[in-house]
Write a structure and sequence with these properties.
Blueprint: H1 2-24, E1 36-41, E2 49-51, E3 56-61, E4 72-76, E5 81-83, E6 96-102, E7 105-115, E8 125-129, H2 140-152, E9 156-160, H3 161-166, E10 176-181, H4 194-205, E11 209-214, H5 219-222, E12 234-236, E13 248-251, E14 271-275, E15 285-289, E16 302-307, E17 316-317, E18 319-322, E19 331-334, H6 351-374
């Protein structure tokens, strides 16, 4: 009988402990002391960095966010009352004090919200092409690029030039436009429609940014990024893909600190490969040949990169930046035989660099777009 009482007592104690743990285990602190456990914002995939010791919370939002009208969600330690209450629209143009109270105790947290750089989750990307949908793209290089964009950027929209000509309103909610063109040297007629050109010129004149790659770098003159006569000086490629035993890449000497070149697998401290020996390639490119004294690379542009063998960047310009202003958006143009999204044979062991430099360009231009629009 004694053993029965002891077992019953143990069961009751265990039940009480389980109930207590179940209630207080709903948050990581498990304490009646008023503490902040989590701070997030409705509509944004961001969470605040909470410093419990100093009672501060800091977080960054995309540059297009309206920090004067944000709706936070705060999780406090068990039983805590929170002020301002969850669901309240709050102006974070200056730090805001949040108060948590529980069992006669209170604690205040200073919450600061700042604008941060764009990332793949926040960037609103518009990919342009000649096909009506990604699934209908027939050029393997363009298809691989668009599919990567879709898998990397959640806020992506694909649109054909014909669709853009009929309705360009998507540009009002776009941080960066990307057109990668590999089909042929000549630009397609759909991209040259006056409705399309006007829409893209207006988009840039309202601070919107663009990334033009492959043969699309020839679009710079058409959308008035460069003056007539300042555009690409050489464009072409092989009739069919071919095998090559060499690694090809780019030299960005003098620009190693630029956000575009961060996180790459480097060949040297100022260069990186983009396609590996043995991977088949077309050698498609549309760039400036600056070794020719008759060639004009505009002085309002920035030469960012050349081929890896042109280490000092004195022969070619394969990547150029046209910086934005409060009136016009930033544009990056990049075209090189090494910038190849699909090899018909042979593995490109540097595809991670192709993807990384593209991701960097798109998020960089998106950040510049929003900085231009808010200044």
């Amino acid at each position: 009988m004694k053993h029965i009482y002891i077992s019953l007592f143990s069961f009751l104690v265990a039940g009480l402990l389980f109930t207590s743990c179940d209630e207080e285990g709903m948050n990581s602190l498990g304490s009646i002391n008023p503490e902040m456990v989590e701070f997030s914002l409705e509509g944004f995939d961001v969470k605040g960095e909470i410093d419990v010791l100093n009672a501060t919370v800091s977080l960054s939002v995309p540059p297009y966010a309206d920090i004067t009208s944000l709706t936070p969600f705060v999780e406090g330690s068990y039983g805590s009352e929170i002020s301002p209450a969850n669901g309240t629209i709050v102006d974070f143009s200056s730090p805001v004090t949040y108060t948590l109270e529980n069992s006669g105790q209170s604690k205040q947290f200073i919450v600061s919200v700042e604008y941060g750089a764009m990332d793949t989750k926040s960037t609103r990307l518009l990919v342009l092409g000649t096909s009506s949908a990604i699934s209908e793209i027939t050029n393997e290089d363009e298809l691989a690029a668009a599919q990567w964009g879709k898998s990397t950027f959640p806020n992506i929209t694909y649109m054909s030039f014909d669709q853009l000509a009929n309705d360009a309103s998507i540009l009002n909610e776009t941080d960066v436009v990307w057109w990668h063109y590999d089909t042929e040297v000549s630009l397609p007629g759909s991209a040259l429609k006056q409705e399309v050109l006007t829409a893209l010129v207006n988009y840039r004149n309202n601070g919107g940014g663009l990334y033009l790659s492959g043969f699309a770098t020839q679009y710079l003159e058409e959308i008035e990024v460069v003056q007539q006569g300042h555009g690409i000086t050489e464009a072409g490629g092989a009739p069919i893909e071919f095998e090559n035993p060499d690694n090809w890449g780019m030299s960005f000497r003098g620009h190693t600190d630029h956000p575009i070149f961060q996180g790459l697998r480097m060949e040297t401290i100022e260069s990186a490969f983009l396609i590996s020996g043995g991977a088949w390639r077309k050698d498609n490119k549309a760039w400036w040949t600056v070794w020719d004294e008759n060639t004009i690379f505009p002085d309002y542009g920035i030469s960012l990169a050349s081929t890896e063998w042109d280490f000092d960047r004195t022969v070619l310009v394969l990547m150029a930046e046209f910086p934005g202003t409060p009136q016009q958006g930033t544009v990056i143009a990049f075209s090189a035989g090494a910038y190849d999204w699909k090899s018909v044979d042979g593995e490109n062991t540097f595809m991670d660099n192709v993807q990384r430099v593209t991701q960097n360009i798109l998020t960089y231009v998106a950040t510049e777009t929003n900085n231009n629009r808010t200044n």
